[in-house]
Amino acid sequence: MPPALSRIVAGPLGRALSSRNARIFFGASLGAWTGLWMHRIGVAWLAWELSRSAAWVGLIAFADLAPAVLVSPVAGAVADRVDRVRLTMISQAIIGIEALTVAGLTATGGISIGLLFALEVVSGTAACFAQPARQTLIPAIVAREDLPAAVAANSLLFNVARFVGPGLAGVVIAAWGVAPSILCNALGQAFATLSMPRLRVEAAQRRGHAATASLLAETLEGFRYAARHPGLGPVLVFSALSSVLLRGVQEILPPYVERLFGRGAESLALLTACFAVGALVSGLIVASRGRLGGTTRIAVLAILAQAVATALFAATGHFGFALLCAAAIGASASAHGISVQLLAQTAATPAMRGRILSLWALISRACPAMGALALGAAGEAFGLRLPTLLAAGLTLAVFAWGMSRAGGIAASLEGPRQGEAERR
């Protein structure tokens, strides 16, 4: 084993993955996410085959991700007051059933673009509940000192799946068609759902607080808590703005693959895998840090790198160079996502953790959906290159604002008081 990798395995990341609970939890996550990425590639390609429209591909991505706008804040409040293991199981089961339905309809010729849209809304809604429910369990399965590495490992394994899933999807779609690729998501979700009862989680961590007000009041309390917080509010706004502008590219790749580079499904899988390779490498680096200091700076600078890489990706017509740009986009997006999630996990008090993580879910799901919808619509009118370059240019202004606030955010989120917040 290379010395650098040995240090990572023996360091904070290795400790975070060493317990029985962590192996079950992250193993189930890897299975579910691999299936999810196979589903996403399959559905994106299916939408393109059904419509030959970049706008429709963007709309299908929007259908899966946009329910977060309305549902995620409520889902966070639910995760703070119910059995989080059970909520995760129910949500994952619904996602699996939806994948099974899409695969069956596709195989029998019964799918249409409108029906696909409706089914993806169902799956996206269920995912809004699964994400905060699962993430609130992370502090319950590792020691407090290993939480930074565990949060990084969670994002890291998501990107491992993003590497493996598209590669498998490309092979499966090329050999057997779209339906088997989507069916793999149903299998992955079933595996993850059946793994959850094996976790040994203390009752206090498994269930959130007793209801103190109506569900709506507790949902609004989450927004007020984030808005009043001197660090959480600004870092979440910064992440939301940059996600709307940059993340849509990754959600509507099929039109880019065919219109900019004149290629097919195998190249789509290769391109998506390059996003994941970059994310995997940067994820390992961020995970191996095992500390909170400097995390805000990484989160902000990563957006500058992502904007530059996205502009180069849109500007080039050379597929080989586009693969390098995709790796850079994946690396910077992963570094930003891990950093923001780590800051949110450590800053939020236990009673508010589900609601704060639901806001992160809102950003990571709804903002890319809005970006995908806008890029898809603009792509039909102006071509894909110009709108993508414009979005990358606007991101530079967001970056400048983030840099101006980085010192205050870091002072609020990275100071020694965060350890006290975790103990309350």
Describe this structure in words.
The chain crosses the membrane at residues 24-48, 54-78, 99-119, 163-188, 231-248, 268-286, 298-315, 321-344, 356-378, 384-403. It is a multi-pass membrane protein. It is found in: Cell membrane. This protein is an all-alpha fold. The protein has one domain (3-423): Up-down Bundle (Growth Hormone, Chain: A), CATH 1.20.1250.20. Helix content is 84%, strand content 0%. The protein has 21 helices and no strands. Helix 9 (147-176) runs antiparallel to helix 18. Mean pLDDT is 85; it is low at 419-424.
Return the CATH topology: Growth Hormone, Chain: A
Number of strands: 0
Rg from C-alpha positions? 20 Å
Structural class: mainly alpha
- Percent strand: under 5%
At the first level of CATH, what is the class? Mainly Alpha
Distance between the termini: 41 Å
Largest sheet: none
Q: What characteristic shape results from the CA principal axes?
A: globular
Helix-residue proportion:
over 70%
Number of domain modules: 1
Question: What would you give as the CATH superfamily?
Answer: MFS general substrate transporter like domains
Mean model confidence by pLDDT: 85
SSE series: HHHHHHHHHHHHHHHHHHHHH
Low-confidence stretches: 419-424
Please tally the helical runs, counting DSSP H or I stretches of 4 or more residues: 21
CATH second-level architecture: Up-down Bundle
